[in-house]
């Protein structure tokens, strides 16, 4: 069987250049069947150089295009993505494995950043102070950085590239995306739709690759900024190497989000929320809720009782099964990794209440499926608690009181998201103020902020100072220039009579300074 090749999108075209890939490629699977469905070209420094040259050529003109016209490209792009939603969602599911409804959500959450970017003329208005001193005004303007790059993970192949590229492009930069080599097709389609929407060639480009391409990006002197999302060790590496090369870097990492269940919570609602938040998308979400913390013994017993049948009722199916709760994980290696973590949890003494290992979907025995798992009596010393599993595995960590429940997520190495379920406004308010985590949900299991707010965790969940999208994104992708201006009174100049020009010291030119 011949498999298609997924090429870079450079200078408006997807054909590989003479040096494209240097001969290396990566396998792209269909996680539903377990078969290789495509090969992605793994790029080299030479491919990046071609993309940078195209970006360099196009960016000054794009930056000089007025923001309203740039916004019109965003409006048209949004229309095109909506018109192609079904095709994009199918393509996304076929490489990632998430169910179609989740793929549409992935695209939709990215489009919301594009909607935010449609307002870029308003957003880019600078600050102005009239009369900062006698006759002196101060104003600021935000200018693009030039060429920026994004390096993205496999789990949101539409949303995360759009978080970065939407804001980078709307603010006048050229943007080079290095998507995950595990599901690279949707990013290329997004690039094609940007071109169709009227974006000039070279402003949004896609280069595929692995560590070699990432290192080439980090070291390239013409790239001013790098936005990364992925696992924490790599995020830290990207942050250090990029900063050392003099770049602006934001690097989002892994997560282990906790859901605190207070004794007064509506347990039926909590269980319904956990079914989605812990197991949806096979747990491959950085805002998933893989740890649940019931407060008090009674809450723990009642919650566990309700969770077991709810987990048994979850339907694992192929991505195109409309009734499936979740689909396969991204590849066989990731499934083995999840299964190894389950074994580690058992070895460390946690109680495995529901074991999802060894699950086979009839008719799809080679697909990368794994059933849902539930652990109870997980403790903070266990490595299976400390580390991210990134699969359909829920861990119960029992807390004796509110103080312990605040301490658990606060002391964890990751600090992406956290949720509290309660009917007590005071408890929720205290929790939100005190917890050492970047994004908090109150009776909201997955508190991903809307596009006009910003996304970002704390501790080992993010390196760098600025969040993704919203005004933080605008700050990341622009540099601020502040102008202090003084216009002396023109009437003080000598008369200009000799050359016939206007005399400027007459009464008509006396302009009193107001500020
Ligand atoms: P990953 O770290 O394996 O890959 C992310 C990117 O880094 C990919 O583009 C990949 O090609 C590149 N990469 C991989 N190995 C590299 C290396 N050795 N050197 C340089 N670059 C390398 O992550 P993933 O498995 O694709 O995605 C899942 C991870 O991403 C999870 O840890 C998840 O929590 C995290 N994530 C975080 C957020 C967030 O906003 N905090 C959002 C989504 C996903």
UniProtKB/TrEMBL annotation:
The entry's keywords: NAD, Oxidoreductase
Species for this entry: Sphingomonas aerolata
A Pfam family it matches: Aldedh
EC numbers for this chain: 1.2.1.27
A single GO molecular function term of this UniProt record: methylmalonate-semialdehyde dehydrogenase (acylating, NAD) activity
GO biological process terms, semicolon-separated: L-valine catabolic process; thymine catabolic process
Annotated segments matching region Disordered: 7-30
Bias-annotated ranges (Gly residues): 13-25
Major enzyme class: oxidoreductase
Domain of life: Bacteria
Record's protein name: methylmalonate-semialdehyde dehydrogenase (CoA acylating)
Domain Aldehyde dehydrogenase residues, every copy: 25-483
InterPro entries: Ald_DH/histidinol_DH, Ald_DH_C, Ald_DH_N, Aldehyde_DH_dom, MeMal-semiAld_DH
């Amino acid at each position: 069987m011949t498999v298609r090749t997924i090429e870079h999108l450079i200078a408006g075209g997807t054909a590989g250049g003479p040096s494209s890939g240097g001969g290396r490629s990566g396998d792209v699977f269909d996680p539903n069947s377990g078969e290789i469905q495509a090969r992605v070209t793994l790029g080299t420094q030479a491919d990046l150089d071609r993309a940078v040259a195209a970006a360099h050529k196009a960016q000054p003109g794009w930056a000089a295009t007025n923001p309203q016209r740039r916004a019109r490209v965003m409006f048209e792009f949004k229309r095109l993505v909506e018109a192609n939603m079904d095709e994009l969602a199918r393509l996304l599911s076929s490489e990632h494995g998430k169910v179609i409804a989740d793929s549409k959500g992935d695209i939709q959450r990215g489009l919301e950043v594009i909607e935010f970017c449609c307002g870029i003329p308003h957003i880019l208005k600078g600050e102005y102070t009239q009369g900062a001193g006698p006759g002196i005004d101060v104003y600021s303007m935000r200018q693009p950085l030039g060429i920026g790059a994004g390096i993205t993970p496999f789990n949101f192949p539409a949303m995360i590239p759009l978080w970065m590229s939407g804001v980078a492009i709307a603010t006048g930069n050229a943007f080079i995306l290095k998507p995950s080599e595990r599901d690279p097709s949707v990013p290329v389609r997004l690039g094609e739709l940007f071109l169709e929407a009227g974006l000039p060639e070279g402003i949004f480009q896609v280069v595929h690759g692995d560590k070699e391409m990432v290192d080439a990006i980090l070291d390239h002197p013409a790239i001013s900024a790098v936005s990364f999302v992925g696992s924490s060790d790599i995020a830290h590496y990207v942050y250090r190497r990029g900063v050392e090369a003099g770049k602006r870097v934001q690097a989002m990492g892994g997560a282990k989000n906790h859901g605190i269940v207070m004794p007064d919570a509506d347990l039926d609602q909590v269980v319904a929320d956990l079914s989605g938040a812990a197991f949806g998308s096979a747990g491959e979400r950085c805002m998933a809720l893989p740890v649940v913390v019931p407060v008090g013994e009674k809450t723990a017993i009642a919650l566990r009782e309700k969770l077991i049948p709810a987990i048994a009722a979850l339907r694992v199916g192929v991505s195109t099964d409309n009734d499936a709760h979740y689909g396969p994980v991204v590849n066989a290696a990731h499934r083995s990794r999840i299964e190894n973590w389950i074994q580690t949890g058992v070895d460390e003494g946690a109680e495995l209440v529901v074991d999802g290992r060894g699950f086979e979907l009839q008719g799809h025995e080679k697909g990368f499926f794994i059933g849902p798992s539930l652990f109870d009596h997980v403790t903070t010393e266990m490595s299976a608690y400390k580390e991210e599993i990134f699969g359909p595995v829920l861990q119960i960590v029992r807390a004796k009181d509110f103080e312990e429940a605040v301490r658990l997520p606060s002391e964890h190495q990751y600090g992406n998201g956290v949720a509290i379920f309660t009917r007590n406004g005071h408890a929720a308010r205290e929790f939100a103020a005190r917890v050492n985590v970047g994004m908090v949900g109150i009776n909201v299991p997955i508190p991903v902020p809307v596009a006009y707010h910003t996304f970002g965790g704390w501790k080992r969940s993010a390196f760098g100072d600025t969040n993704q999208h919203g005004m933080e994104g605008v700050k990341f992708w622009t540099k601020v220039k502040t102008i202090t201006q003084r216009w002396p009174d023109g009437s003080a100049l000598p008369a200009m009579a000799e050359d016939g020009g206007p005399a400027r010291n007459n009464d008509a030119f006396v302009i009193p300074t107001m500020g």
